[in-house]
Amino acid sequence: QVQLVESGGGLVQAGTSLRLSCAPPGRTFSTDTMAWFRQAPGKTREFVAAITWRGDSTSYAESVKGRFTISRDNAKNTMYLQMNSLKPEDTGVYYCAVDTSIRSYLPTSLNQYRYWGQGTQVTVSP
Fold it and tell me: Rounded distance, CA 102 to CA 3, Å?
């Protein structure tokens, strides 16, 4: 069973920043598309951002465009999500995911991602 490990979550005030990390211990995903999703209390899990294996193309949900930046360092086998200007509505559990299929586009649906982490909690207070 492949596991992904997220870290970097926490409790912060609105307007501040956090950086999340995702790493798969013992396995490399340097040739796979990776993404971040989040799930707020009482809501379904939603797409946040995705990045190609080369890091040359990214996609963002409208709600985070201009505030969040997804990146990856394949040498370190780690993906990041830099979150700036955080808002209370960004609160939720953030999950990283891996898509092992070969596609010509960046997927945004949950069922297109094969491997998932356990999530890291991000709480933004007003």
Answer: 20
Residue 43 DSSP code: S
Q: Report the Cα 6 to chain-centroid distance in Å.
A: 9
pLDDT for position 110: 96
Q: Please report the sign of the dihedral spanned by the C-alpha atoms of residue 69, residue 59, residue 92, residue 8.
A: negative
What is the CB neighbour count within 10 angstroms for residue 12? 17
Q: CA 111, CA 108: separation in Å to the nearest integer?
A: 9
Question: Which ranges of the chain would DSSP assign to H, the alpha helix?
Answer: none
DSSP label of 117: B
> Residues 7, 122: contact at Cβ < 8 Å?
no
For position 1, what pLDDT does the model report? 66
pLDDT block averages, 10 residues each, the chain of length 126 = 89 98 85 95 97 95 98 94 98 96 93 95 98
Contact 29, 97 (CB under 8 A): no
Taking the CA atoms of 27, 68, 94 and 14 in sequence, report the sign of the dihedral they define. Answer: positive
